[in-house]
Amino acid sequence: MTKRDESSSTADIGARKSDHLDIVLAPSLASQRVASGLDRVVFEHVALPELSLAEIDLSTRFLGRRLQAPLLISSMTGGPERAARINAHLAEAAEELGIALAVGSQRIALEGRASGGLDGSLRRLAPSIPILANVGGAQLVLGYGRSEAERAVEMIGADALIIHLNPLQEALQEGGDTDWRGVMAAIEALVAVLSVPVVVKEVGAGISGPIARRLADAGVYAIDVAGAGGTSWAAVEAERAAEPAHRDTALLFAGWGIPTADAILDVREACPETLVIGSGGIASGLDVARAIRLGADLAGQAAASLASADHSAEATSLHFRTVIAQLRVACFCTGSANLAALRQARLVAPATTA
């Protein structure tokens, strides 16, 4: 590939990723085609909590660092200039609040000239929190290996590497990477040699128990279920489709996937010893509480915080302070002094019905 071709490819990827953000923020995608299932988790109200709201302990440990709340700002991306602004806002907010940060795909930074803020500045803005790097699973069979993975980690001083799985999006995306033969073997090989732990996540269609078990057996440190109920990347690709036939096909799969609540339950049952991140339609602190009650160790949020992240660090901090305050109320009204107690909180209906 010539330098002109490389520059054109980088520009195309950047434009596509910026389009993705605009579409996710558009009101037309506000109504989801599949429910996350989290609203079926109904806590039994405790009228005598015998707790101080202010003293409820929401802290946990993740990747060797202490979090003030069990929250991961999930992977977001965009064209290079826009991504740099968003990443800076997210890093400042995450550092202020003591929550973890996962960056979006680093493909442009690894292959192009633009970093999108994915460089040493990110760690300088957030010196004390866990930061997770990110590469695509499909790239692991298209030339990416240990060298590229280590570069992704080193460029932002990351504590772990996320490998994201997005077969549905790739299948519906014009020019998508659709040869996934060998991805599992590549993940296993990378886990064995990488200098940091590996996290595997979907991007909105969920991970099943059997797949999670295979990943855990391969040495993957954590599974982010990223279930259906949040952003539908099929719907996003439908919005971008130039041809009516492509749009119709993408819309057909807009409701595809494992709902987040089901995915959390399934993965926790299959992998009792593995760290589980619940994401996909986490809209509030109450949803965070529901995810933890179902078996997640952390909850991840992306789309619900995107508008604030696109605006400013202050708006981002306010958004996540609100989420944390909502989680604290859920703990208070279930009589849960900490996250361990929240995991045992009584439900109006059994968790297995979620």
TrEMBL record:
Pfam families associated with the record: FMN_dh
Record localization: Cytoplasm
GO terms under biological process: isoprenoid biosynthetic process
SUPFAM superfamilies per the UniProt record, alphabetical: FMN-linked oxidoreductases
Keywords noted in UniProt: Cytoplasm, Flavoprotein, FMN, Isomerase, Isoprene biosynthesis, Magnesium, Metal-binding, NADP
Binding residues for substrate: 16-17, 105-107, 169
Enzyme Commission number, as recorded: 5.3.3.2
Listed cofactors: NADPH; Mg(2+); FMN
Taxonomic superkingdom: Bacteria
Gene Ontology CC: cytoplasm
Reaction(s) catalysed by this chain's protein: isopentenyl diphosphate = dimethylallyl diphosphate
Keyword Flavoprotein: yes
Cross-referenced InterPro entries: Aldolase_TIM (IPR013785), FMN-dep_DH (IPR000262), IPdP_isomerase (IPR011179)
Amino acids binding FMN: 74-77, 105, 134, 201, 231, 302-303
Residues at which Mg(2+) binds: 170
Enzyme type, top EC level: isomerase
Quaternary structure (record): Homooctamer. Dimer of tetramers.
Protein family membership: Belongs to the IPP isomerase type 2 family.
Function: Involved in the biosynthesis of isoprenoids. Catalyzes the 1,3-allylic rearrangement of the homoallylic substrate isopentenyl (IPP) to its allylic isomer, dimethylallyl diphosphate (DMAPP).
Protein name: Isopentenyl-diphosphate delta-isomerase
Gene (UniProt): fni
